[in-house]
Write a structure and sequence with these properties.
Helix content: 25-40%
Number of helices: 13
Strand order of the largest sheet: 1-2-3-4-5-8-11-12
Number of strands: 12
Radius of gyration: 20 Å
Length: 409
């Protein structure tokens, strides 16, 4: 991989951000680092700006990244990995982590949120699930004691599989076996003002039923859409139906005012033979159309006046991720900084970037006991987990297929 072809790279960036004129705002991007060939964080900054992203979500609290992005105005979500939840139940350890990995970088680096764990409730691990809320509470208490709770919120990300019913969206409901676990967490969100995070991938619905699920419906392309027979709301894409199903589930248990953010969604540009739809063209359509929707400041049919808060997955293709080929091909950029496909976004910042040879694998943030966190998110979002995480579309898909067959969509 050559990193010195500056003029070639610059021309590709210009191609990448050209196509149609689009003023992008409030776009979030997931910055994973399970790779040994990524550019330094300093050289990532122009790439983030080239797609108009103003928010970045990490899967740790990498000090190199947080230092590099100081004074850029980019908002950051940092994460405590699942493997540290039991430690974070200890208020002293939580306080030490917050001081080292959050307070130390404020206010230069704009850290606005801490995610404690990822998709814990669908692991069927009682030890992990039992540690989740206490860890969130300890981290929040640490922020309160440091006077940072007004600027930094605490949350956790969930798989869409926390839903038992997802269609019609107005009938969305949490799994009965998770209600007792999730309700206290929702109460925490309500009291602290933090958002409810969901990872949602329409790609998996299409991959599972490519002959029955209309590709246009999952790619935000023009299509007839579906009608929610209960609310009479019309849905033109699956992601919005998934989001509104989450809103309905929250309302069913008494938390209809909670904000819902999509912490992960994306589409792979390459996959194995059995991974239908994993192509550059489909990835371009999904992410390009999604970013257009985000920039339009329009909400979902159920919440039309609520801005979309969505983090696209992901910034880079990551060559060390386990699992099927798709897992290593969700990136908007290749490791050398060139775009995987022309997304067609016009950014307000056109930047020339020189990428040096890739650094060694980054070292994660410091932990209270002196150890370091994983430099990516193997422990919280590995390929085997991702394959089963989006089962929340199950009931939705059964009904959707019936509707498609009936109306001839």
């Amino acid at each position: 991989m050559e990193f010195s072809r500056l003029h070639y790279f610059t021309s590709l960036v210009l191609l990448f951000i050209s196509g149609f004129v689009l003023s992008v705002s409030s776009v979030g991007i997931n910055y994973g680092q399970i790779a040994n060939n990524l550019p330094t964080p300093e050289n990532v900054i122009p790439l983030v700006k080239s797609i108009g992203a103003t928010k970045v979500k990490l899967y740790d609290a990498d000090p190199k990244v947080l230092k590099a992005f100081a004074n850029t105005g980019v908002e950051f979500i940092v994460c405590l990995g699942n493997e540290y939840l039991s430690k974070m139940k200890d208020p002293d350890k939580a306080a030490a982590w917050v001081k080292q990995n959050v307070q130390a970088y404020l206010p230069a680096t704009k850290i606005t949120c801490i995610t404690v764990g990822n998709e814990i409730l669908t692991f069927n691990d009682t030890s992990l699930s039992g540690s989740l809320l206490p860890a969130m509470e300890s981290v929040h208490t640490a922020l309160v004691n440091l006077g940072l709770d007004k600027q930094v919120t605490v949350t956790t990300a969930h798989s869409l599989a926390v839903l038992e019913t997802s269609y019609p969206p107005s009938a969305g409901a949490f799994r009965k076996d998770l209600v007792n676990s999730i309700t206290p967490i929702l109460d925490f969100h309500s009291k602290t003002g933090s958002p409810f995070l969901i990872n949602a991938y329409p790609y998996f619905a299409y991959k599972g039923n490519p002959k029955q699920v209309p590709l246009d419906f999952v790619l935000f392309q023009p299509n007839q859409g579906i009608l929610d027979p209960s609310s009479n709301l019309h849905y033109e894409n699956m992601l919005f139906a998934q989001i509104d199903a989450v809103y309905s589930a929250l309302g069913t248990v008494g938390y209809k005012k909670l904000a819902v953010h999509i912490s992960e969604t994306g589409w792979p540009s390459k996959g194995d033979g059995d991974e239908a739809g994993a192509t550059p063209d489909n990835a371009k359509k999904y992410n390009g159309n999604l970013i257009k929707l985000i920039s339009s400041k329009k909400g979902t049919p159920m919440k039309p006046n609520c801005d979309l808060n969505i983090y696209v997955f992901a910034l880079f293709n990551e060559n060390m991720k386990p699992g099927p080929t798709s897992e290593r091909n969700y990136g908007l950029f290749k490791p050398d900084g060139t775009p995987v496909y022309a997304l067609g976004i016009n950014s307000s910042t056109n930047t020339t970037v020189s990428l040096p040879s890739p650094p060694a694998s980054p070292v994660g943030p410091a932990m209270p006991d002196g150890s370091t966190s994983s430099n990516g998110y193997l422990s919280i979002s590995s390929a085997p987990e991702r394959k089963v995480d989006y089962g929340g579309v199950g009931a939705f898909m059964i009904t959707l297929v019936m509707i498609i067959n009936n109306v001839g969509l």
